[in-house]
């Protein structure tokens, strides 16, 4: 008998940013946050887990390379928590259930996007790990319950347990049992939401989210203002905007929160800079694009947001993506053609790009090829998927297929 399961999980990009922990071991945040889950058709982590009494110990391979599992590290914590749930919720209740909680596990995980793209993989990675072990252990748990465990792998991972529009409620309890992800709206509520990721080249090694946010907690007074007076209001505003499908309000709050996150990074001692000149020029282009839209219709059409790095994520409704790709390509010429998953450009070529009528071209300078290394067009997506045996990443010997 082979006990094995495979699952995939999505990336999420926050509109209201998580930045700061009140408990670094349990990963309890200093504020609630909210994100959009991106489609797994384009970006995903896939994980296979197998339990076998003949394995010597728990082992994990990420993109074919073995990673150490050392207690009380994040990987070891997640695996131990899931084994505990298997015992309590399945084996203790049904004496005929195989004692999988006592077997070592082999886990192989693969991200379909290159780490070099600078996209955070910890959220989709921990969500896929938790989803595959939950499937292996046949846990009768809701995504919110599983999010409590994914959170202990990486805070933002808890939001990848749902598709659509997802809040991570910070909670108040010391044991973290109320710090979990909840669905604000499913993908089907507002499927027109698209995202364009501008992969910005970055040579220097940045400050990791984990260490950067703790430095901010220790040194930034602005963060305290944000936690107390800004985020609670914005969480309400963005939830209302999503429920009403009000893109203008969604865009306003999303951009304001990205700006404030980077302001608290700058307010950290010593200061942290995640955006670079390219990032700031993309902001200038979106601000001008929105100015033209507001002049014509009174409403914004795009929202930029930046995580702990220089890449831009531009949220917009499907009908505007073509214009925005043309705008970005005009200022950031591309070496490789635009991969066009939604077939916006008949014939496949974007050409030289262009701006919309009334756009002030002087708001940014034109960059060299390579400043924006690539564009990824995707949309709002669904939550983790349990996959069939044909998608398994472990071979018959229980080792990653890529190593065979
Ligand atoms: C800027 O979830 O990567 O992307 O909990 O320490 O693993 P750890 O941090 P992580 O931080 C993400 C920070 C962010 C904002 C967000 O996703 O909400």
From TrEMBL:
| InterPro entries on file | GHMP_kinase_C_sf, Mev_decarb, Mev_diP_decarb, MVD-like_N, Mvd1_C, Ribosomal_Su5_D2-typ_SF, Ribsml_uS5_D2-typ_fold_subgr
The cellular component terms of Gene Ontology attached to this UniProt record, alphabetical and capped at eight, are:
cytosol
Stated EC number for the protein is 4.1.1.33
Keywords on this record?
A: ATP-binding, Lipid biosynthesis, Lipid metabolism, Lyase, Nucleotide-binding, Steroid biosynthesis, Steroid metabolism, Sterol biosynthesis, Sterol metabolism
Quick check: keyword Transport in the entry?
no
Check the record and name the Pfam families matching this protein: MDD_C, MVD-like_N
Q: Which GO terms describe its biological process?
A: isopentenyl diphosphate biosynthetic process, mevalonate pathway; sterol biosynthetic process
Report which gene this protein is encoded by: MVD1
Protein known as: Diphosphomevalonate decarboxylase
Q: Name one GO molecular function term.
A: ATP binding
């Amino acid at each position: 008998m082979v006990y094995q399961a495979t699952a995939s999980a999505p990336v999420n990009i926050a509109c209201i940013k998580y930045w700061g922990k009140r408990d670094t071991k349990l990963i309890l945040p200093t504020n609630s946050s909210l994100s959009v889950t991106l489609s797994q058709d384009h970006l995903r982590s896939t994980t296979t887990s197998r339990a076998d009494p003949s394995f010597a110990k728990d082992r994990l391979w990420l993109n074919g390379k073995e990673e150490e599992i050392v207690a009380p590290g994040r990987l070891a914590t997640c695996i131990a928590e899931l084994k505990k749930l298997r015992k309590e919720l399945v084996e203790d209740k049904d004496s005929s259930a195989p004692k999988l909680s006592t077997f070592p596990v082999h886990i192989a995980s693969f991200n379909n996007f290159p780490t070099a793209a600078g996209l955070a993989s910890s959220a989709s990675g921990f969500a896929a790990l938790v989803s595959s072990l939950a499937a292996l252990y046949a846990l009768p748990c809701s995504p919110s319950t599983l999010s409590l465990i994914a959170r202990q792998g990486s805070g933002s991972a808890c939001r990848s347990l749902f598709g659509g529009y997802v809040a991570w409620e910070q909670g108040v309890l010391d044991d973290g049992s109320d710090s979990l992800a909840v669905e604000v709206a499913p993908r089907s509520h507002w499927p027109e939401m698209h995202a364009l990721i501008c992969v910005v080249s970055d040579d220097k090694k940045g400050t990791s989210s984990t260490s950067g946010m703790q430095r901010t907690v220790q040194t930034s007074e602005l963060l305290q203002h944000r936690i107390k007076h800004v985020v609670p209001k914005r969480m309400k505003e963005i939830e209302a905007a999503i429920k009403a499908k009000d893109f203008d309000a969604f865009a306003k709050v999303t951009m304001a929160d990205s700006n404030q996150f980077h302001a608290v990074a700058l307010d950290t001692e010593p200061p942290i800079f995640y955006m670079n000149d390219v990032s700031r020029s993309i902001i200038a282009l979106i601000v001008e694009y929105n100015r033209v839209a507001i002049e014509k219709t009174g409403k914004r059409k795009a929202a930029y947001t930046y995580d702990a790095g220089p890449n831009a994520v531009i949220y917009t409704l499907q009908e505007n993506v073509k214009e925005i790709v043309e705008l970005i390509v005009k200022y950031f010429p591309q070496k490789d053609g635009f991969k066009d998953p939604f077939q916006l450009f008949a014939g496949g070529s974007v050409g030289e790009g262009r701006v919309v009528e009334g756009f002030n071209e002087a708001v940014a300078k034109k960059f060299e090829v390579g400043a924006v290394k690539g564009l990824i067009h995707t949309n709002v997506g669904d939550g983790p998927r349990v996959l069939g045996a044909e998608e398994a990443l472990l071979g018959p010997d229980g080792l990653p297929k890529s190593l065979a």
